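Record 1 of the preview.
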Amino acid sequence: MTVPTSADPADPSWELLPALVLRSAGFPWQLVESLTYRQTAALLGELATLERRAAEVATRMRASARLTRGQQSKLRNVRPLPPSDIFDHDWLAEWNEIAEQATRTRDQLEPTVAADAATVNAALAEIRTDPRINDAIVCSSPAVHRDLVRGATGGRIRRQLAAYAQRLAAKSETMSFFGPINYGRVDADSDAATTLSWAGHREIRVRQAHCAARVNDAVQTMIVDDDSLVTHLVPIRKTTARPPRRDDPAAELIRSVDGDRTLAELAAAGGDEVTRTVGLFRAAVAKGVLTHSWCPPATTVDPLRWTLERIDEADAETASRAAAVRSLLVKVLGLLDSYPWTAPERKLAIQAEVESLLPTGGPTNRSRFYNDRVIIHEAAVGTAQLELRGQLARDLRAAAAPVLDLLAHEAELTRVQTNRAVARRLGPGRTPLLRALSACADMSIEYGGQLSTELARVVGEAGPEASELDVAGLLPPVPAPTAPVLCSIDVLIGTANLADYDPGTTPLVLGDIHDAALLTPWALQFHPAAAALLAERDAAVRRALGDQKAINVISRRTTGLPPLEFPGVVLELGGSATAGRDRIGLDELWLDSDGEQVVLRGASFPGQSLLLHNGELDTAVHTALALPRIRRAVLPTLPYLPRLRWGNAVFSRRRWLVPSAEVQTLLRGQRDLDLLLGAARLVTERALPHRFFVKSPAERKPVYVDTASPDLLKGMARLAATADHLAITEALPAPTDAWLRDGELRFASELRCVYLRGGGQ
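->
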């Protein structure tokens, strides 16, 4: 049994990889703060205080006669009352003093709003002409940049600029110079001071442009469709290992593929016409059964450059046949090399030129990932190098370990319960994995639910007034997971200065949680010791796996980012793995079920149970057959949840579930003052902070809202139209508690930490 406690630094249950990825915003918090009506907000705060005082005084009113309508109106609107014998003299004096202050405050609102509006309008004018902001916008939304260039005005462009301001300043997304990659290292054995070396947010060492995945798909289509070139490709089998069915027209071709002979050589050896062999090959590639020697692995960071290198390594005849493809690749790569540092207008032209060279038709659907929406995207590396030492370094593992235990147990329960549901669907017996995937395609994941139930209990016992709750000692002990657990957590440190870190007090906020070890070739593409760090990661993964056989599922590359690939055997399910990996065919895997439990087995591993590797594939079958997929805690559905922590490890910020109708009612005003008054009422009635993140179930990402900004409030009102409820969470760490600073400028940041634990401990 593993009972989460204040983890002993010597406790070996969880391993934290020493290499960190420092993710940060490329623009300071001050950017989004420039959109706030700060003076108006201060007046509204004073007015809210006066109105609360007036409400308390009103409860003590004792009138000797029936109130007139005018008197009732003045009480309701906190206005001074004229002299009257029906009121107690002292009470009336107290009321009128408060009401007169409230009236004076209200009288200041209109001119103050006008002054704040002028300041914010000037800030927006600077935002829309700022070269770096325009660069960021053209990289992620060319259409918005075109609107800015043609001088678009009005509410829509204003909302879009506000939305970009909150995204660029409040989010730590790794994309281009406005979300640069930086690196750090944890040294828990050192008691030396933590150090940060940084040349500032404007210093970007490298900007590297990449194409969307659909561009590589277009290149591959061009290669396979080239009649003069296709016969010189070497077909390679994937996905399946056993001989195809005899009724498959491509059966003989697939059986003859050995990874050495070209398509022309295979046709000659089989006595078949080349044109027929080519047709069968193209059909097999389209089905995902075959690939070829010039198709880059799905996990390759730069697939276009990889393809160019294969062409340049080819013999003279093959290279001559590939001259058109090579010329195209050289042209596209030249455009990509010139892209990062060029002006926004030139970027638009390059985007259009790449699209014209390799027409892709755009994304097949509205992508939820920024890297898919534009045909070119960037990765960039800054100059920051963080060396975490001392107690902070130790607490990154020790303080997080008890929470990780809770989440790992919940992941194990989810795996077990979903596994049982799949077993019941399939019934007793053996089922090929491919058939199981089809039979269970409509199933939902069966979440464990135990943690949510226990959290609901302790929150209920704490009462509605609790602002935070330390659950240490309040939850029942949980057993250690029986299977290995691999995960990554984006940790936010709630202090304005890392030197001021106070063990047990300074919040370590566990942000996004990913069920995979996300120290990847993509994340490390700019690190000088990338190969050594990946070897260090793989060694840790092998330690955690122990004797457990884990199968990497290599999916098709559908976004600008490559899929994950870790140590162990690979199953090419749409994508191709790197050369030299041990592969297993989809047709070599089956499920043994007794009706209550299902086990994944493979012909290459007789008598052994297998688990799928990788994460973030939200299907019932994957969850049932995978390593425990650690996720954020599934929280009880309550109108309000206090901040939940174990010691100083915060695993849930304060959260409010607010009906969208309430938000729309309070934020329905068109005037800035009406919006600010509505937001002030929402804050007062719901006891909300003035700054928070709000999320709709219909959207992938939350948005940052400052209730002193009418432009951000308009975005919140529009978000309320997308769902019945909105989830509002506190901004923790607060914008003022940002330790990553460039002079007076404060930057949002987080540390991507990889945690691993072996099973059965």
